Amino acid sequence: xxVYLDNSATTQPYKEVTHTVAECFEENYGNPSSLHRMxxxxxxxxxxxxxxxxxxxxxxxxxxxxxxxGTESNNMAVLGAADALKRYGHRIIxxxxxxxxxxxxxxALEEKGFDVRYLNVDDKGRIDINEFNEYYNDNTILISVMHxxxxxxxxxxxxxxxxxxxxxxxxxxxxxxVQSYGKIEIFPGNTGIDLLSVSAxxxxxxxxxxxxxxxxxxxxxxxxxxxxxxxxxxxGTENVPGIAGFGKAVEITFSxxxxxxxxxxxxxEYLTEGIKDTIKxxxxxxxxxxxxxxxxxxxxxxxxxxxxxLHMLEQADIYIxxxxxxxxxxxxxxxxxxxxxxxDAEIDGAVxxxxxxxxxIEEMEYVLEHLKASVYRIRKIMRK
Length: 384
Description:
Elements: E1 3-4, H1 15-26, H2 37-56, E2 64-67, H3 70-85, E3 91-95, H4 100-111, E4 115-119, H5 129-135, E5 140-144, H6 158-165, E6 172-176, H7 188-191, E7 195-199, E8 210-214, H8 240-253, H9 257-278, E9 282-284, E10 296-301, H10 306-314, E11 318-319, H11 335-339, H12 344-348, E12 350-354, H13 361-383
Helix pairs in contact: 1-8, 2-8, 3-4, 9-13, 10-13
């Protein structure tokens, strides 16, 4: 049995998505900027995807800009906002547990003279809104806080943050929704979010394509210059197969949305409770209530190394991770778990299980059987 539990890194595409992508490669391969029939057909595919994605966010179609993925969307939002608003101030507020696509951009902006404040988090990775209130002042121009943390699954208080800046047009609020889009409903225009990043391959779409919601009242400079595609925000020939596949993935994901998410949550809870009941010396690093996303749970198995457990489970065709796929090849410890105050032993033994709608209770029974045996075996070896 193959059990894939690394869905925060990437997801298995829907069969309908792979069919849509292949159809574009084989038949609908025109350039959407061309004026002939093939170009118009390709343009219609892009427009259809934009309509589906904008509807899922309750946004206007011209507020959705297609990008190469979450990293580009995050870079475009943060760098663009900083450049557009620098005449009003230099303070940027973010959190200490953001994705590297935000953290590293903010570090680059610090070198250019921006005053970046990193919010601390509790032991489950959630920011303190009171600390945010302390940092927020007249010099603030940008707030960038992720909706769901990719390692711990923690949901940040986005609505509370939005209330602080709603009446201030000189502050932009950016949300990295890469891990929440398709798992938790979020409507940026209604919430007070100015910029919102999403990615296709996190919800059973193709890799290499994402989107950035830009509120119609927000104007940021582009990162890429050229033919002025994507409403002049993002030049370059559109990735028609990827965009069409993205639209198809969103269409499927948001059909029967609540039932899909509830099924994922129940399977995750079965796994979590099974681990607590059958394996000693574990620490659940994620919230076990509605403050955690339905598809992620981070758990420390004390007395072992998470990487060793990962490879032992791999031998049984079970696939998990030790943290963010974007930084998993680095030797440093997780900056997210460090910020949450976990001990070195807890960080060393931490692994992430991230689920999708394809996972089942039967799979979790198989995982629990091999997980218990693997943890026991590793601990026995480590004690020698």
